[in-house]
Design a protein that fits this description.
single chain, alpha+beta, Trna Endonuclease, Chain: A, domain 1, OB fold (Dihydrolipoamide Acetyltransferase, E2P), five-stranded mixed beta barrel, 10 helices, 34% helix, globular, binds iron/sulfur cluster
Length: 340
Amino acid sequence: MNEIIYISPSTFYYWEKCPLQAVLSKLPESRNFFPNNPDADLGSLIHKFYEKQNEWKIDSLERFNLKWSHEIIEMNKYYKENELQSIYFPIQWYASYYTVKKMLLCNNLINKPIHFNTNSSEFKYLYEQWINNDVVGGRVDLLVKENGVVRQVVDFKTGKIFEKLGKTIKLKEVYKQQLALYASVILENQNYMPELYIEQISGRRFKVDIDSNYIQDLKKRAIDLKNKINYTIQNNTFENLSVCNTENCEYCFYRHNCDMYKNTFMNKRIGLRIDLIGKISNVKSDIITLISGSGNFKIKNVRKVCKYKVNYDCEVYNLFFPENNDNIVFETTSTVIKYE
Ligand code: SF4
């Protein structure tokens, strides 16, 4: 297995909590197992509009609508043809606040000045700029440069940006760390501390103040994390990196490849969901019986019964497990089956 080259600022928070995620994320079999969340795909499209606003000349409602429709048609085509993704077709039905997000993006883009001729301007607005040092590397949504000096770092977010900690509401730690790591790379090439912002889809910007001690500390933690991960890759002991607990594992994208997770949490409830491993013993109407080491489970609300093969060993991910329900679980839109 190849060593990790860069720690991405957007994943550092998760990799530090469970470094095994970094290793598993590089495996080809980790990809395209769970369907993409339509909110994430819509978020990527919104980022693309910011990045390409000049190139696409989005300066009027008509031009915005034309381009938006084209992109959504293309996305729906992919959703429809891709078996995994087809459960979320059409994206307009499944992405949360689809219309609101579209309207806010449109207002934000066409009310903003478009920065043509950026190369001849004193200011440069650089979208999706790759920055890196020896440890950290990632794409910044927007860098604003003045005479070669980075004045602003802007990260666009389409979802919630605050979290509640006790009685306080504060910026999500994952976003603070992301901005701090961008700053740590930029500060290696200039003395001026850029202003750090998170911009929501409405166009509202939040200035994020981060002190230099926090940035230095994070920089050191990123170096330590990279060394730790690569040491285990060199020695083929990366399984030891796992930090398996409900908080880290519940929504981990790599759990279908993670032995520690399978040994610890398969057939066990986490919140209101469960992943099962066992043998399909019976398929009747739209109810499936699965025999597992923890007893028999009935899977209900099955959409495609033919996906379940009797007498086959399998793993079933993303099932809804209501409380006080005697081993009766329900398929969700994102339920995925894996056969041995
Ligand atoms: S499933 Fe849990 S232990 Fe395994 S990689 Fe994900 S977070 Fe880590």
